[in-house]
Automatic annotation (TrEMBL):
It holds the Pfam family TetR_N. Residues 62-81 bind DNA. InterPro entries: Homeodomain-like_sf, HTH-type_TetR-like_transc_reg, HTH_TetR, Repressor_TetR_C, Tet_transcr_reg_TetR-rel_C_sf. PROSITE patterns: HTH_TETR_2 (PS50977). This is TetR family transcriptional regulator.
Amino acid sequence: MDSKSDGSGFDPESVDVVLRLLWREHLEVAPGRRGPRRKLSVDEIIAAGVALADAEGLEALSMRKVAEAVGVSVMSLYSYVPHRSGLIGLMVDEVIGRTALPELPEGVGERLRMISDLLWDEYHRHPWLVAAQSHRPWIGPHTSARYEWELGALEGIGLDDIAMDHTVALVESHASASASNSINAQKLADDSGVSDVDWWNANAPFLEQVMPDEGYPVSGRVGSAVGEAYQAVTSHRAVYEFGVETIIAGVEARLSAPA
């Protein structure tokens, strides 16, 4: 086995070509610019991938479809971007870069809410970002700038470096999970043509037979309260809001607690 390889084809001493593509604007000579003039730019390929994922979802994204969209062969496309996973990484960083990073407000709670709302809105503009999390999280310039901005919201408030990182991860995880639930519920309603309210109304008589109130007193009471409040099984936005407020309260309590 090559001393520079771990046996999987990965060379730990090399710089992955996808990283070079991500940071192409920061390199003196961008990848792929040597040799004969090329028909495409990497930016055009990324834009085509984002447009396809926005329209059809990440599961529909293939190198063949992207090649067709930009008017080249699949083999030619691979000479620009080495694989689908790398293309997804480039797309994620591109989309993150499209979201402006606003000036942070004064209060800690307001800052955490701004970060969370920015992510919630971004996921709903590009629902495929949820599925993209199952792929390698490539470190690109826009992703790095986002993380720096998020950490800047917590700099100097009294958290140590580890707690700062964990707080950002907690806010990101909650926004991602909540947005995923919201997006999936909407997709289910769109695909089936049946809203949650209609489905539960149609099945309520049967459920009342097999789930009498005396058998499920707490869940029955809570379910009724939620149904009356939202005229639905739940409100994903309300759950998201509750989670954000709980995170903010927890961070503020941590800051006010004795060392």
